[in-house]
UniProtKB/TrEMBL annotation:
<protein>
    <recommendedName>
        <fullName>DUF1684 domain-containing protein</fullName>
    </recommendedName>
</protein>
<dbReference type="InterPro" id="IPR012467">
    <property type="entry name" value="DUF1684"/>
</dbReference>
<dbReference type="Pfam" id="PF07920">
    <property type="entry name" value="DUF1684"/>
</dbReference>
Length: 287
């Protein structure tokens, strides 16, 4: 009886979680899931096509240089020249931007302006730039991936993975080198380093971001329990005492866990933690 009572005490002491905190996390997670399902979310991505200089024909049949998964046989021609992308719809094909049909060649991307979003039926697309490459990011508002999405499994909520972190701001401007999943490398401004303790050991994570602090991190759950290429975590800027909170229960999968058409950053080597963090989102899908 004493052994059972002691076991019950340990369970209560170590594993009871504040119900208000659980409700708060559940509400946060509902908003997170809703953001994935929005029209500008990650679940409806249907293609990422890199452009070559000059003309790039696009449509759903194989004689195009860019083959869309659905839509008109011949949608139109993308023209890339000196960092400027224009689009000409194919004859007899209706392509719109902001609800207005294009009547001829239209500039849709320059470095100085927000890219135009074009639409044909359930397909929408716009141009992205990664390094010196320009690509078409295609969405399908009737995507099967979106229709088949039924949520994200999470680790059980554990308050021990909500930790206070000391924020070390660099004394001079520094950058951290970030490689993304397609191999592009960029130097991002280092906002600072978050220093925290877990089970008596000290860990450090470099963060970027001017508003919310943004951390791309890896841990020992990656590959089996969580997404193999790491996860994302956001934190508030430090308060007057120089600290903030890292809540790993809010660790999320990168877009690449949901679609093969994203270009996600990978954790820099210094952000790969030599410890399991069984908190936040578990792995999703096979991307």
């Amino acid at each position: 009886m004493r052994l059972l009572a002691f076991a019950s005490f340990l369970t209560t002491f170590f594993f009871t979680v504040d119900p208000a905190y659980v409700r708060q996390l559940d509400e946060w997670h509902e908003k997170r899931v809703a953001s994935l399902k929005r029209e500008d979310g990650w679940l409806n991505l249907a293609g990422l096509f890199w452009l070559k200089e000059g003309d790039n024909t696009a449509g759903s049949v194989s004689d195009n240089s860019i083959v869309f998964p659905s839509g008109a046989a011949h949608t139109g021609v993308f023209h890339l020249e000196n960092g400027i992308v224009s689009f000409t719809p194919a004859t007899g094909t209706s392509v719109t931007t902001d609800g207005v049909a294009l009547s001829g060649k239209t500039e849709i991307f320059t470095s100085e302006k927000k890219p135009k979003t074009l639409q044909q039926g359930s397909l929408k697309w716009f141009i992205i730039k990664r390094g010196d490459r320009y690509g078409i990011r295609l969405r399908d508002l009737e995507s099967e991936n979106l229709k088949q999405f039924h949520g994200i499994e999470r680790f059980p909520v554990a308050e021990r993975y909500r930790v206070k972190a000391r924020f070390e701001k660099p004394t001079e401007a520094k950058t951290i080198r970030i490689t993304d999943i397609i191999g592009l490398v960029s130097d991002q401004p280092l906002a600072g380093t978050l220093v925290f303790e877990l089970d008596g050991k000290t860990y450090r994570l470099d963060a970027t971001g001017e508003g919310k602090l943004f951390v791309v991190f890896g841990d020992k759950t990656n590959g089996r329990e969580s997404y193999g290429a790491g996860r994302f975590l956001y934190a508030d800027q430090p308060g007057p005492d120089g600290t903030t909170v890292l809540d790993f229960n809010q660790a999320i999968n990168p877009p690449c866990a949901f679609t093969p058409y994203a270009t996600c950053p990978l954790p820099p080597v210094q952000n790969k933690l030599a410890v399991r963090i069984p908190a936040g989102e578990k792995n999703y899908g096979n991307h």
